Amino acid sequence: MLGHSVLEIVLLIVVLGVMVFYILEMLSGRRKKEAQYDERQILARNKAYKVSFIFLVLYCNVCAVLAGVPIKWASVPVMFFIGVFGSVTVFVTICIINDAYSESFPGCKYRQDKPYNSLLFTFSYVILSVLWFFSKGGHVLTDGVLNENTMYIIFAVMFFVIFIAQVIKKLKERAAVDE
Prior knowledge:
Layout: H1 2-27, H2 39-68, H3 76-97, H4 110-113, H5 117-135, E1 141-142, E2 145-146, H6 150-178
Antiparallel strand pairs: 1-2
Helix pairs in contact: 1-5, 2-3, 3-6, 5-6
């Protein structure tokens, strides 16, 4: 039991450290200008908002129908978590694919200086989520129903989808530069 407590404390310190580093990086003097999106990016973001909202509405309707029948597949917090973060994952993935996720700063070298910060952050969060899951015992079912431990794996899968979208986008950008 003590090993789990130490692992949880270490993971918490690592997660807090990454969050503090990321916040300090964002608040550093490099980002003094406000984010500027061009018209194409604004339209793509609006489309992504609509698609993620439709995903959330459809998901809520499916959960409501399943609640009406005697099929209990997940606890209420897990269902809520999947819906909200699933729609966020849909939004972010569509924005990355349509090149509307990162804002443009005219004359700013921030994106060129550290192009792989978001990839590193996303991948490290996937690893930390999986480790946190195993520190909680690694059980996903309680009486045949998905329990709260499932959220760590679901979060890791959602971040992995975002990571894959980022990698595909980077590879497409590199191929376009090489041509």
